[in-house]
Structures are given as structure tokens and as C-alpha cells.
Amino acid sequence: MKKIGIVITDGVGFRNFILSDFLAEAEKTFDEVVILSCLPATVYSGFVINSKIIELEVFEEKFTTWFFRKAKEVAHLKLHQKNNFGIQDNLKTNTSTSKSNRGHATRFIFKLTSILYSEKWIQKFNSMQQISFKNDPRTIGYKTVLEKENFNILFFTHQRPPFVAPLVYQAEQLKIKTASFIFSWDNLASKGRMAANFDYYLVWSDLMKTELQQFYASVKSKDVEVVGTPQFEPYVLDRYKVSHEEFFSKFQLNPDFKTICFSCGDIATSKNDELYIETIANAIKEGEIKDLNLIIRTSPAEDPIRFSKYVEKFPFIKWNYPKWNLSRENHQESWSQRIPSVEDVKDLRSLLEYSDLNINMLSTMSLDFIQFDKPVINTVFGNSKNGLYDDQRFLNYAHIENVVNSKATKIVKNKEELIIAINLYLENHTLDSENRKQLLQLQVSKPLQQTGKRIAEKLLKWA
């Protein structure tokens, strides 16, 4: 008898592993499935019928744990910063001028890791972080859960949230196998250290497998499996399909016009979105782009209030506010507690399928639209000299360099380039199609069909 524990950490994990076919496939593959949830158990109502749900107590990180986690993360960034602009940029954002205890500690960590940043020291910091969980009451509670459930394998749907580390610690103590899914295309080449060490890893692509072994030298090839990603699986599932007529009716679009979808990032990394929206809207008003529907999809990670003035200023713009409901207040990562609805998955799929063109600031949404072979324009007007938020620096991130080199999208750095690119793609939607397919194969090396089944079957073998 094989039993799996599936750790759902956030709303995106809920979408990827509950709203895809993964859970149904896991229930067919394993004798027993238990969901260990960092979200309130109530969010699974109507979605989970045959599996048991255990709501984990919210973990609050004490200073000692934070210190060794931060030391591990900064050491990892310092070890891999050479010839890696994304990691160098991330290292800068980790600095602190705060006069708080954590601010002082961060500056001490930077001094400490200027000397102690080898893989050996990273593992020492990791061990010290794990030891800090030893007498923590919440962590002891996790141990009780794991002892009672007696899992063959514990599957983490995200490798980065700090609050999964105590669960990994208790699994290590109880000799339970652990596996993690690498959450996103940029998580290895530009982000900090994982929350913990896992026994096995599931990755999107052959590229991601190479990156994993590059940044985590102790990981063995046999412990990594390329499975694709369930993030895009709903795009081939009939239950999320919406007709062309329903799409135009819902968003009140003119069926005789072509449709541009601008997809926003969050305020932390996509501060120029308002400028891009205004530039496109004014170009439509002035006739530089003709006969167009413009629909804006805001980021599900934040409240769209920053765009409210544009709703009034440009009444012809249609808006898609993702229907993600906040399930818990006052969480250390509040965005993680936003839960997607089935309606939103359908809305997103219809936008991808029926829009003629996507524009975004170098987000993963480029890959979403490319799944449907839709042209994509990436807007980066800001640099270090023109007074705008410097989003051109992201062009030097390793995962974005792959996009730039592929020529799968048009990178535009000013209004003139944007208008030219829009008109080019609207006249010829097949332009750069072959490049798009090659980028997709690089980033997602398996077909979307049966992604959930592939993951479940591999986890069973490891169990």
C-alpha cells in the first residue's frame, strides 16, 4: 500500500495541482492521498472528494530560523553571482539599511557570507536552520501529523516558501522520502536558495534539469525527472473550454475587431504597467492602431486599485480582474492565500485562445499565450537613465535572455517600437511562430496532455 502526502502551499499551487488533472491521477495511482494544506481546508470544498485534507497550523518563523535561512540564501547568491546578472540583482535587493534587529543581522550576514559562501557552508547553514526547528511547538505538531499518517512520500508543490522547511525537517527525522516540484521558470537561475533539501525533484524541462544540477551540485541526475508543468494543463482540458461567442459576450468585445490582451505584473516588479496601458490606449484613440478591442488582465497577486483612474480615463478598455479570493488575512505571505476560481481559469484560457496578441512586461504570461501560438510583445521602456523604473535590466536575467535569443517575442523599448510591433503582428499573426514553438520546447519539454498522470506515476516510483 502506497500513501502520498501532497503539500499545497499557496493559491498558485492550488490551481496547478488541484484544478489540473494531477489530483485525480494521484488518486488513481496511490492507495491513499492526503493533502497537507497551508491554505484553509474550506477552500477545497467541491474540488476534493476522495482525498483527506489536513490543514496545517500557520508557521511563524522565529529569529534564529530566519537568521540561518537568510545566511543560506545570501551564501547561495554569492556562490553563483559570477556572470549571472539576475542573481547579482537579487543580491542587491536582499541588502538592508534598516535599523531593526533584522536589518543589523542582514548586514552581519552579508559580511559573514563574504567569506563563508561555499556549498559546504550553505549546507551547514541549512543544517543549523533545520536544528532550529527541534523544539518549536508548531514543528512538533507537524511531527505528530507525519507519524500518524505514515506516508511513503511527501510531495511539495513549491520548493521556496520558508514555511515548508519545518515539514521537511520532520520528514527527514522520520525517514520519509521527499520530492519537490520546481515552481516557475525563473526559480533556479535568478532566485535564492530553496527552503530545504529534497530527495527528488520534478522539473519543467531539460533546461531546468541542467540548471538544477548547476546551482545545486549535490543533486544527482537520477533524482530529477522532466515532467512538464501542470500550470498549463487546464489549457487542454475540456472542462475549461469556452466558446468564441461566450468570450466576446462576457467581456463585451466587438466581434468584428481584433483583440489585444495586456497582462499586468504586480507592483513589485512591473511598476511601468500604467505607462504601457496609457500608451496603447492613446494609440488606439489617435488611430495609430485601428479597429481594436483592448482588454487588460490585472495580476491575481494584488488588488487592481492602482489602475482605477484608467477605468474612467479610457472607458473603451475592458478589464479582467482575476477572480482569486483571499482565504486568510494576516498571513506572512498574504498573496499566497489568494485562491483561484474555476471561472478565472476559464476566463484566462479564453483570453489566451481568442486574443490576437498579448503584451506584457517579460512575465510568464508570455509562455501562456505561446501555448496557443499567439504573438507576444514584451514592453520594457525603463532604463537606468530615463527616470522610469528600470525594467530593461530584466533582459539580462538568464531566463529572459533565453526569450531574447529565441526571437520568439518582440522586445520593445519605446512607444514607436511598440506601435510598429503591434501593427506587424496584427497584420501577420504567424510571424515568429517557429521561434515561439522552439522557445516553448526549451521551457516546457513535455506535452501538456497527461502532465498530471506523468507526475503521479513518477512519484509512485520514487515512493
Tally of contiguous helical segments: 18
Q: N-to-C terminal Cα separation, in Å?
A: 10 Å
Major beta sheet, strand line-up: 3-2-1-4-5-6-7
Q: Judging from the principal axes of the Cα atoms, what is the shape? A: globular
Spans of 5+ residues with little confidence (pLDDT < 50)?
A: none
Number of beta strands: 15
Mean pLDDT: 95
Described by strand count, sense and barrel closure, the largest sheet is: 7 strands, parallel
Helix/strand-derived category reads alpha/beta
Tell me the β content: 5-15%
Oligomer: single chain
Radius of gyration: 23 Å
Helical amount:
40-55%
Protein described:
The chain is of the alpha/beta class and 463 residues long. Helix content is 41%, strand content 14%. It has 18 helices and 15 strands. The strands form three sheets. It has a seven-stranded parallel sheet, with helices on both faces. The chain has a six-stranded parallel sheet with strand order 10-9-8-13-14-15, sandwiched between helices. It has a two-stranded antiparallel sheet with strand order 11-12. Helix 9 links the parallel strand 6 and strand 7. Helix 2 packs parallel to helix 18, helix 3 packs parallel to helix 5 and helix 7 packs across helix 8. The N and C termini lie close together (10 Å). The mean pLDDT is 95.
Comma- or semicolon-separated keywords:
seven-stranded parallel sheet, 18 helices, six-stranded parallel sheet, alpha/beta, 463 residues
Short description, anyone?
This protein has helices spanning 11-17, 22-29, 63-79, 85-93, 101-112, 119-131, 137-149, 165-173, 206-215, 244-250, 273-285, 308-313, 342-354, 365-370, 398-406, 415-427, 433-443, 451-462; strands spanning 3-8, 32-37, 52-55, 153-156, 177-181, 200-203, 224-226, 258-263, 292-297, 318-320, 324-326, 338-340, 357-360, 376-379, 410-412.
